[in-house]
Amino acid sequence: MSDRTIFGRAFVGGELREGTLIRIDDGRITDIRDAAHPPPGSEAFDGVIVPGFIDVHVHGGNGADFMDATDDAVARVRRFHATEGTTAMAATTLSASRQDLHDAVTTIARAPQLNDGADICGIHLEGPYISSARAGAQDVASIRPAEIHELAALLAEGPSLRWMMTVAPEIEGARALIEHFRDRILFSIGHTSADYADCVAALTWGASHFTHLFNAMTGLGHRKPGAVGAAMTSVDATVELIADGIHVHPAVLRIAALAMPHRIALITDAVRACGMPDGNYKLYEHDITVADGAARLADGTLAGSVLTMRCAVQNMVELAGLPLDLVLPLATEVPARILNVANRKGKLAPGFDADIVVLTDRFEIAATYLRGARL
Predict the structure, then answer these.
(1) Domains of the chain as residue ranges with CATH
(2) What is the pTM of this model?
(3) Span 53-81, pLDDT tens digits
(4) Any catalytic annotation for residue 198?
(5) Sheet containing 86-93: which strands, arranged edge to edge?
């Protein structure tokens, strides 16, 4: 899409600016300037114009899951989350059999990426090299020791993508795996029983991220700081937060955001039930039930979420009581850094992809632009 302009209040340069005119040409932002009034032919909005959201941990939505390993499922997830403001993502898999994981990765890497949904910038392997004791809703039968050859074969299917992998540092082979691939994969500590010292050690091996902080890991105690303590005392490790008000209490969301505002990426951890009615669904080999805004196994264990990035931003403002200008980078700039696309996504700036979302005052989506084309 070429030569269009949009006008309104916008989040530019870390602040909310009134009367902002954004010019788009050939899928990129070419100019941003102050203007007293929208020029003829421009699209003027109330609410706020923000960078498109970036989700580094999303499994599915609208009845589809990346583990379905079909082009249709990939397309449905991309399109659905784009309608909720996500313009880029890391397609996320689960602990699964070797064949099922290979099929999912191959499909994600080769699926057509038309300009009708969120851009898949990376693949996030959440397992299978995790702790059985902290499996959460993952398939315990599919959890296994770290294996360099298996991971190398998966990487070969998507050489141009950013790769992330959630690993429990205490499992067999974890250190060798991290040290071997540390220059190729962003390793994330998660689904782990590791204590503080183990997690700090894993950071020295090459891990640099924590999967859904506070969930499926050792917690922060005043004598046992755990995985959470290792994340919070790190200087540069990034972390994920599921801001649905269920996985993490709003007060803790606020504490975390104020403690490390430049290192948090809001995520959805959304499953296929996201965007669907309450009821029963599949999460790989598990049956899950969605009710009252939560997805759970039969025993009550949380099983991903039905959260969208739009609602995550809203919850950080309305439940955690944080200002919008602090929250927006957690859904845009930080995840862009994590996915190695911070030179072209995550900000409203000249030269950046025209991935733009317009939010109403009630945090509804007024418009979404994917590389300049309005969805």
Answers:
(1) 4-49+353-374 (2.30.40.10), 53-338 (3.20.20.140)
(2) 0.98
(3) 999 999 999 999 999 999 999 999 999 99
(4) no
(5) 53-58, 86-93, 119-126, 162-167, 185-189, 209-210, 238-242, 264-267
